[in-house]
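ARCHIVE CARD
Drawer: 12
Card no.: 0347
Subject: one protein chain, sequence and derived structure
Cross-reference: see card 0346
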Amino acid sequence: MELKESLKEHRARLGLSQEELAERIFVSRQTISNWETDRTYPDVQSLLLLSELFETSIDELVKGDVATMEKTIKETWKTMQNWALAAWGLVAVGFICLIVGFLLPTGPSSLAANCTEGEVLGIVLFIVAPAAITNLIVGEYDDHTLAWNIVDGILRVAVFIFYIWLIGRMEDIRRMFMYHGAEHKAIHCYEHGLPMTPENARRFPRLHVRCGTAFLIMVMVIAILVYTIFPLNAIIAGFGVSDGLPKLILVIVARIVLMPVIAGISYEITVKWAGSHPDNPLVKVILWPGMQMQYLTTHEPDDAQMECAIAAMQTVLAREDAEAARATDATEAIAAS
């Protein structure tokens, strides 16, 4: 009897569903389904648990499938070695990034500018840690994909809020958040066409629709949608990725790879669309979480900080005017020739 038929027969005899059997031997329901359709094959530990549960010997369980079992065990062992190598590779890259970030000077042309300890910490805090905790709470990714992504997203937002609140207790960061508020007030003043003075700027709120804080919150919301519709389950099933660490590593890698896509979509929504339609009711609803988050990342500035923000704004505007003038002169010169 082939293993898949043996599994179905014993499961039916005990009156167990695929999900109930999966819980008994500590695998996912999708894994049981894969075994019963010959897509993958149980490892040795799973076979031992199955034989004990079904009260039969492993020989009886795999009768007719010995050659397949040997081949599968070898392939599984090779796959696990590859995943282990990949995992240690990720750890090694992380340590290298930390070392480079600490030892090399930062700057536009330095390697540390692109690979710093801050980036590694960000990946660990906002991708690896939430994914690992979600895996413990929800279970295997392909068994509860929607719930997995929702819980993962909530944890990521919670970590972000706590992180911002925590660093906001530091005096230097608190002053930076005051400059952040001054920046928003100066931009509001300019966008409303008023003379850029501290008195005029102070009339405006310290929140702004195009703030980077709102962008980051939008990134986390869009991430839930992108991760949910991305066909990761098909990849897991197609390659027969094992439960546990291999599957979790694949989920984490997929999240890192999809980050540029998520950032691009979030930029179009937060900066391009919402920034050009700030009074649209839908914009206000969509950006409400990010706007509320700005109460943590901005504080009311003092007069010196307002003057600094206005001076910075005027410097940027003067530079933009000069660049526009040079572009106009170049266009006129080309047209004249």
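Annotation on reverse: The longest helix spans residues 66-103. The chain has a mean pLDDT of 83.
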